[in-house]
Amino acid sequence: MKQTLDIVPLKSWFDTGDAPLIIAGPCSAETEEQLVATAHLLANTGKVNVLRAGIWKPRTRPGEFEGIGSIGLQWYRRAKEETGLPISTEVATAKHVEEALAAGVDILWIGARSTANPFTVQEIADALKGVDVPVLIKNPVNPDLSLWLGALERVNRAGIKKLAAIHRGFSSYEKTAFRNEPMWDIAIQLKTLVPELPVINDPSHICGNRELIPYIAQKAFDMDMQGLIVESHIDPSVAWTDAKQQVTPQALSDLLSNLTYRHAKSDDPVFEDKLAELRKDIDKLDDQIIKILSDRMKIVEKIGEYKRDNNVTILQVNRWDEIIHKRSNVAQALKLDKDFVVKLLELVHNESIRKQNEIMNSKPVAEA
Ligand code: PEP
Ligand code: MN
Fold first, then answer.
1. This prediction's pTM
2. Does domain 269-361 sit in CATH 3.30.70.270?
3. Which of 27, 28, 109, 142 should be mutated for ligand 1, with most atoms under 8 A from CB?
4. What's the confidence (pLDDT) of residue 364?
């Protein structure tokens, strides 16, 4: 089901031409010198469109550095004036919104912890009524698409039309290589539900370490995301927050040069023709797959009736083991990924069991 948000295209409020939107800057504003010097180095790369810096920091544990607070806004304004770059920061309360706007912050974002809390989002949305400022909404910390959508709707209903989402990954109990699991499928679902919504990727908070950033950033472009927000610090080793995931402005510049930005469409008619031709072949094969599945299901039904009439169980583990074993060998010989084929067979098998269960619990059709 498509969702509608009353938004204007990214190009109308931030035109980067054919290039992605790049937001970069330190996790936190720490000192005037650190913020302004980092801003200059980032501006000098010529690859950064907007600065980022946290003025108020949501910290998991009390007693950690919770952001430099309002004083940082004055330093930030200086960075904006000297570099000519627009500035962005996280707001979590109505007061933050008021202070940030008064200081000339150009773009606001709502952090992952705030998105998870509808009271907070509503408070921010109320403070934004009557204001024309772009707002970026990070996904909630927990993998819940509705909360993300809900926050976008609340802010949109407050009249904010310059809206975008930030994909920064999700908390998961299981420890993996990432600080926050990307769970790409949730971001893809959001893009499918609201195709006009720009989605920007935050590889820094997904990775939690600088080494993995290029991999995630490229994947984001491959998934048709329209920009990146990356943490960059003049000297990451001494950063007060998120030291492991920050990169120097030079490293950011190199990283950006090595990425390939892809477009959802091409203007090249030869490419479009070839793509259309290949898609026709795919359509034909998909139709055949559906037809084959339907034929297979008919046989499954017949077997179901046969089992029912002879009082035999639906599930026969040996038979299932044999199917998995044989088919994965065939798959391997055909250079198909074994796990993919097993997953597909499991889906088909579950549906077969569901069908046979239905049959098992229905009465045999009386003989005429
Ligand atoms: C941040 O961008 O500095 C931040 C706190 O991120 P998140 O809300 O994604 O944790
Ligand atoms: Mn951070």
1. 0.84
2. no
3. 27
4. 66
